[in-house]
Amino acid sequence: MSGTLLDLKQIGKSFVVKRSLFGAPLQTLRALDGIDLTLKRGETLAIVGESGCGKSTLARVVLRLIDPSEGEIRFDGDNITALSPSALRSFRRKAQLIFQDPFASLNPRMTVGDILNEPLMLHDVVPASEQDGRVSALLVQVGLKPQDAKRFPHEFSGGQRQRIAIARALAVEPDLIICDEPVSALDVSIRAQILNLLADLKAKLGLSLLFISHDLSVVRSVADRVAVMYLGRVVEEGRAEDIFANPRHPYTRALVNAVPLPVPKRESRPLLQGDVPSPISPPPGCHFQTRCPFVIDACRTGRPPLEPCGGHDHRSACIRHAALPDYDSPMRDHATAPVLKRLMAAFVRPSKSETTN
Amino acid sequence: MRAATSQSWRDWLLSEAPQSRAQARAGQAYRRWRGFTENWLGVVGLVIVLTLIGMAIFAPWIAPYDPLAQNLSQRLQPVSWQHWCGTDSLGRDIFSRIVYGSRVTLLIVGLVVVTVGPLGLILGCVAGYYGGAVDRILMRVTDIVLAFPKLILALAFVAALGPGLENAIIAIAITSWPPYARVARTETMVIRNSDYIAAAKLQGASSLRIIMLHVVPLCVPSVIVRSTLDMAGVILTAAGLGFLGLGAQPPTPEWGAMIAAGREQIFDQWWVATFPGLAICIVALGFNLLGDGVRDALDAR
Questions:
Q1: pTM score
Q2: By Cβ atoms counted within 10 A, which residue in A53, B71, B106, B151 is the most buried?
Q3: Looking at the partner chain, which of B196, B202, B204 has a beta carbon nearest the beta carbon of A107?
Q4: pLDDT beyond 70 at A104
Q5: Cis peptide before A264 (omega within 30 of 0)
Q6: What is the per-residue pLDDT across A48-77, written as a single tens digit (0 to 9) for each?
Q7: Does residue B141 register a pLDDT over 70?
Q8: CB–CB of A314/A308 below 8 Å?
Q9: Which pLDDT does position A324 carry in this prediction?
């Protein structure tokens, strides 16, 4: 049960931005740069970072929608970096993606039934006579009604559409589901419902999730482990509680500082200044040096390795991780007023009969 | 009483809270129809096209004479109550020939659209979906065909295939698919990058399946609009081929060929060439107006 499901070794992906007249690449964008990650069976690994840091590219590379430029992807022990088309098709049964925008991920001309039927048909998941029943079961599983199969996507709200997308991902009975910002396009009021649904399904079906998000408060509620990405590199990785309570990389600290709190404190927290450098020409050495408050000369040469910096496989790619000052994380569980606690609980409480949004 | 019934029908169709799916669909179709009829030019086009179709279907009942019956004692008669549009140099009634000619025109338009639409759609979708070398090759072929003036290319094909109605249709079809391929390609390039195509790919759908079941259905509306706009051009090309003697062969009453037959008498017996010319003009205008109306009604852009 606790075997490694997904193992990424030194994954890199470059996109050619500009070509010469004869097609030789002139400028490349390094979207992913030496990504080393593992995901255990039944675990939720969250990948966080600002927009443009390579999170979505990573999701697409893992699913082989984009081919990696270098590195090796192992899924369940098998190398899937170079699969034949037919082997790739059977790999598709094991890993699925939930897209960010439920308004773009469902074909507007197909009924929900057709959308859910397609994977069943393509992989012969169930005999043809049982397909309708399976579609109904899938809809019920995500909190929709069997009759909804006859309707078109535009008849549903954003949250319901995301449920349909989840049902589609579940149709092939995958081991791994990659969620690419599954709730960031949804209203705040619906996010908790979808997150609870994902958590329920994960527990019930024994799924592993790769959860991509820029929203740390969402990540904290779902993730077992967290990897923080900055400009195509993983800068810190560890158990969720370690990352949030005791971040060992200045960038992670800046991200944690930027999370809105239910009870804001008076004193302002230091926030990041400046913009992310262009991924076409990142600074040499540590990518974060241009915005880092703790930068020293050594940061400007050589790529900082992702090194263990504490217990429980906590790793940080900061050469000064031991020298960083103590940090009072605003996301550590503080004593909260009981009234507020109850109020917050009301918002995240999972309920059995969520059918509408 | 009648006004009251039609009022309640309209209320039922325009209801804000439809009781059934059928009512909602009917209401939506009705709203779209109302949007179309707001454009009176489009309605004029529709009336013209419907008249043409009616003429073709009921030709034997509408035409007062046999379109092929020659009556040399009645040759080149001017416009009169016996011969509404006069007679031609073989004494055939021109009005009857125009009525029967609508069948030929509709046949050409229908066959060309039926062959060209799917052909252009498939080529465009394949080029747009695969991109890269496939796209470049297919689109350069399209450009080559597009670079020739349509009539001249059709002339070349008919000259090679031999004159005749079928060959004219084939020639027109060969020359008029590129715009459809262009439209379909542009649409496909947008659709290709959408998340639901990525989702279909992730589910293990083959490229063929994605093109045929996901991309093509989404391109169909714009191709339909394009083809209604294109019909006038097809009619003109067909008439042009007929005028040059490369389309329908005598004695088939084809409008272009009728003009050609009348061109020697154009100054003395003006009606021989004028009425078929008017027919071509009105029908081409009708298809253009209808096409504009359909485009405005279907396409919000």
A1: 0.79
A2: A53
A3: B196
A4: yes
A5: no
A6: 988 878 888 898 899 888 888 888 999 888
A7: yes
A8: yes
A9: 81
User: Which helix (DSSP H) or strand (DSSP E) does residue A179 occupy?
Assistant: strand A176-180
DSSP A237: E
Tokens matching residue A255: 């991200």
A115 to chain B, closest Cα gap in Å: 9
Confidence of residue A356 (pLDDT cuts 50, 70, 90): very low
The domain made up of B28-66+83-298 has a fold known as: MetI-like fold (1.10.3720)
What CA–CA distances, in Å, run from A277 to A200, A274, A287, B186? 39, 9, 8, 34
Q: Do B204 and A89 touch (CB under 8 A)?
A: yes
Indicate if the pLDDT at residue B300 is higher than 60: no
Q: In angstroms, rounded to a whole number, what is the distance separating the alpha carbons of residues A59 and A54?
A: 9
Give the amino acid at A18. K
Pairing of strands A315-316, A307-308: antiparallel
Nearest CB neighbour to A119, from listed B203, B214, B218: B203
pLDDT attached to residue A287: 86
Q: What residues in A contact B200, CB-CB < 8 Å? A: 107, 118
Of A92, A104, A105, the CB nearest to B204: A92
Q: Which two tokens stand for residue B272?
A: 């021989």
Helix (H), strand (E) at residue B143? helix B132-147
**Residue among B70, B248, B284 at smallest CA distance from B260:** B248
Q: Which of B188, B201, B202, B220 to mutate to test the interface with A (most CBs of A within 10 A)?
A: B202
In chain A, which residue's Cα lies nearest the Cα of B207? Answer: A85
Distances (CA, A) of B254 to B143, B262, B284: 31, 12, 15
Residues of A within 8 A of B198 (CB-CB) are 60, 65, 97, 99, 105
ipTM above 0.85, yes or no: no
pLDDT tens digit string along B160-175? 988 888 898 999 998 8
Which residue has tokens 């994380």? Answer: A329
Q: In sequence order, which residues have a C-beta less than 8 Å from that of residue B121 and are 6 or more positions away? A: B180, B181, B184, B216, B219, B220, B223
- Provide, as residue numbers in chain B, all residues whose Cβ is less than 8 Å from the Cβ of A92: 202-204
Mean pLDDT in residue range A306-325: 82
What is the pLDDT, as a whole number, of residue A337? 58
SS3 of residue A70 by DSSP:
strand
Span B34-75, pLDDT tens digits = 878 888 888 999 999 999 999 999 988 988 888 888 888 878
Interface A–B counts its CB contacts (< 8 A) at 56
Contact across the interface for A168 and B205, Cβ inside 8 Å: no
Cα angle B133, B139, B141 (rounded to 5 degrees) comes to: 105
A94 min Cα distance to partner chain B (Å): 10
* B contacts of A106 (beta carbons < 8 Å): 196, 199
Q: How confident is the model at residue A355 (pLDDT cuts 50, 70, 90)?
A: very low
First to last CA, chain A: 35
Residue of A99, A109, A171 with shortest CB distance to B217: A109
Report the residue from A108, A109, A118 with minimal CB separation from B203. Answer: A118
Task: Tell if the CB–CB gap between A105 and B195 is shorter than 8 Å.
Answer: yes
pLDDT digits (tens, 9 = 90+) for B103-113: 999 999 999 98
Residues 6+ apart with CB under 8 A from B40: none
pLDDT of A357 reads 45
Query: What are the φ and ψ backbone dihedral angles of A15, each rounded to 5 degrees?
Result: -110, 140
